[in-house]
Amino acid sequence: MQAYKIMHGLWGMGQMMFTKYIVVVDDDVDVHNTSEVLFRLCANTDPQRDSIFTKGPSDVLDHATSEIAIGSKLGIDATKKFPAKAFNRHWPPLITMDEAVRNRIDAPPARAGKHQSRFRADRSTQPEPCSVRPLTTRVCHVAVNFRKIARSQAPA
User: Fold this and answer.
1) H helices present in the chain, as ranges
2) CATH architecture entry for 2-85
3) Could you tell me the pTM of the whole model?
């Protein structure tokens, strides 16, 4: 309930009433790091339990509202859940990669350069056996690449 108190408190403060979306995260999350906030948004929420829609004042220039100066707002509680929040399951700890794994993922692939075809020279439809990396490696690689993109687009 604390996250909902924060949302409604912010929507009740002056110009903050025009904010359409509020995501509340724990204090250990860097709110300036979009990648980290999106991770917590996806990992810590159940859409039905952790989101709230409400109506309130909106900017008269907002063309998306159904009425002039009145619109809906979405608040999302992306905080950790615990028994006091009526959450009766074990909340898992955050899994992090050590520096050696990060370096290995960030390193260029061993076979960089020429594209390796999965098909034999006779162009048969049977692919050659290939090594498949675990799904977690792919997910981490995507997260790392997203972090690199976010860093490269950050204002200098």
Assistant:
1) 2-11, 34-43, 47-50, 99-106, 135-153
2) 3-Layer(aba) Sandwich (3.40)
3) 0.62
**Mean pLDDT estimate for the chain:** 78
Q: What is the pLDDT along the chain (156 residues), one digit of tens a residue?
A: 889 999 999 999 999 999 999 999 999 999 999 999 999 999 999 999 999 999 999 999 999 999 999 999 999 999 998 877 678 888 888 888 889 988 888 888 776 555 555 544 444 444 444 444 444 444 444 444 445 555 555 565
d(CA 66, CA 104): 51
Domain ranges of the chain: 2-85, 95-110+129-156
Q: What is the DSSP string of 98-116?
A: -HHHHHHHHSPPTT-SSPP
Q: Which two tokens stand for residue 1?
A: 């309930």
The DSSP secondary-structure symbol of 22 reads E
- What sign does the CA torsion over 96, 31, 87, 52 have? negative
- HSE, CB side, 13 Å, CA atoms: give it for residue 88: 0
Three-state SS at 74: strand
Q: Within a 13 Å sphere around the CA of 85, how many CA atoms are in the beta-carbon half?
A: 17
Element (H, E) at 24: strand 21-24
